[in-house]
Amino acid sequence: MGAPTCSPDDARTPTNHTNERTDMATISPLLQRSSEVRAVRGQGLYLFDEDERRYLDFTAGIGVVSTGHCHPRVVEAIQRQAAQLIHGQYTTVLHPRLAELTARLGGLTPTGLDSFFYASAGTEAIEAALRLCRQATARPNIVVFHGSFHGRTMGSLSLTTSRIGLRAGLQPVMGGVVVSPFPDAFRYGWDVDATVRFCLRELDFVFETLSAPRETAAMFLESVLGEGGYVPVPPAFAQGLRERCDRHGILLVIDEIQTGIGRTGRFWGHQHLGVAPDVLVTAKGLASGLPLSAIATSADLMSQGWPGSQGGTYGGNAVACAAALATLDVVEEEGLVERAAELGPYLSDGLRRLAVDHPAIADVRGLGLMIGTVFTATDGEPAPDVARRVQVEAERAGLLLLTCGTYGNVVRWVPPLIVTSEQIDEALEMFSLALTKADIR
Q1: Considering the domain boundaries, does residue 12 fall inside one?
Q2: N or C: which end of the chain has fewer CB within 10 A?
Q3: Model confidence over 77-113: pLDDT tens digits?
């Protein structure tokens, strides 16, 4: 064959991509940001914008930067590792930081959870846990609880019930997922004991009507509902789940993506519940802002998955593992778990004092430094517009907060664990000003 011909249009001068105009390029409008702040640097509890205005950050990147922004120990570990090995792809080669982190986490997870798989994001780790549970049990179904958030990729999204907007336009999602009531006593208007009894009865009803125990592979549970409104799990409910899992050979997966690494005042959120998981999932606060997630389970259970079912290009990245090791050092040496246990009630008490003068704050709840303030109207209905006004006014005052909850009416408090009582006082003062400015009574 002869050489291919080309038209004059095909022969035009190649585009110089480095000189292309970029002034019309934008970030996707489908991302819903909580603020208009353009952060250029961070230090400890603070973010700074292009004009060097300082913001007190009580979002911690959605609970990620537990050691604060750019902790010197973490920065130094990242820089040192980046100069040695950035990407040692772990299905191709192993690297020292991966082994060190595995040994370190093995000393922090419940006894028997001694086999680890690493990924980049929490949603990937949930997907891995889902695959493992189905393969190991040869059962198809998963039970989740109303208000849960487990991720945005299709498998984890199918386990997510915190709000309908996440599923909108994507139905039908993955099958085999059954939703059972979560014991949110505030929502039901009952006391905790009555709510737990009801929800356990409904779970038993699920087993009789929707998913027989012999077809149920696992239950997935957050120890504190995250996106669903910062609602702690009552210990009696978790213990009821553990008993049913043991009786029927069902696996209990506890999602510690947002609650882990000291956030709730214990190293793991499930330590408040008196139960141990069969599979533990962690991410967010593990590596102080670098993408890293993991699942932990027993070597026996992990071996029952199918060979080749786990993998990923960036999981267990060397720099992320170095950041995680430094993070664990800081958490231990600076007593951050103990600090969360001490200052969480200090923050909650301050918020409850403000609620006395602002009845629109109908509830203050949470564990450790994972606290939600619930806003309702005078008739008791959720008031997302009120929560949003307060969030905006807080930002104007210099305090960054997030909302959550099915209706968006919960303002959540999730500061870095290095927060001080003085910084909490500063945040409470800003929040009080925001309540006044937003005309919240």
Answers
A1: no
A2: N
A3: 999 999 999 999 999 999 999 999 999 999 999 999 9
Which CA distances in Å does 113 have to 138, 300, 360?
21, 10, 44
Q: At 134, list the tokens.
A: 């189905």
| Together in a domain, 127 and 215 | yes
Is the peptide bond between 172 and the residue preceding it cis, with omega within 30 degrees of 0? yes
Structural domains of the chain, count: 2
Residues 382 and 353 in one domain: yes
pLDDT tens track for 165-201: 888 899 999 999 999 999 999 999 999 999 999 999 9
Q: Residue 210's domain spans which residues?
A: 73-333
Q: Shortest CA distance to 324 belongs to which of 100, 113, 126?
A: 100
Residue 295 falls inside a structural domain: yes
CA torsion, ordered 259, 262, 265, 269, to nearest 10 deg: 40
Rg (CA), the chain: 23
Domain end residue (candidates: 312, 333, 354)? 333
pTM: 0.93
Residue 47's pLDDT is 98
| DSSP percent split of the chain into helix, strand, coil, nearest 5 | 40, 20, 45
Q: Let me know: does 139 contact 131? Beta carbons within 8 Å.
A: no
94 vs 116: CA distance, rounded Å: 14
Compare 368 and 91 and report the one with higher pLDDT: 368
Per-residue DSSP letters for 76-129?
A: HHHHHHHTT-S---TTT---HHHHHHHHHHHTTSPTT--EEEEESSHHHHHHHH
Of the residues 333, 354, 374, the one at which a domain ends: 333
CB 133 within 8 A of CB 159: no
Q: Which residue has the tokens 């889902």?
A: 130
Instruction: Tell me which residue of 376, 366, 321 sits closest to 344, measured CA to CA.
Output: 366
Closest C-alpha among 205, 134, 141 to residue 177: 141
What confidence category does residue 20 fall into, taking pLDDT thresholds of 50, 70 and 90? low
Per-residue model confidence (pLDDT) at position 12: 47
Residue 202 falls within a domain, yes or no?
yes
pLDDT over 90 at 322, yes or no: yes
